[in-house]
Amino acid sequence: MLLMVRLSLPHGAPSLADAVVGAVRAGVTAGELLPGETYSVYQLAELLAVSRSPVREALLRLAEAGLVQIDRNRGFRVVLPQARDIEEIFDIRLALEPAAARRAAEHATDDEHVAIRAAFADLGAAVGDEERFWLADQQLHDRLVRAGGNHRAAAIIERLRATTALLGPPTTTAGRTLPEIRDEHEPIVAAVLARRGEEAERAMRAHLEHTGHLLAQTLHGGASEATGVSQSAHPHAAVAG
Question: Is 75 left (phi over 0), alpha (psi -120 to 50) or beta?
Answer without folding.
Answer: left
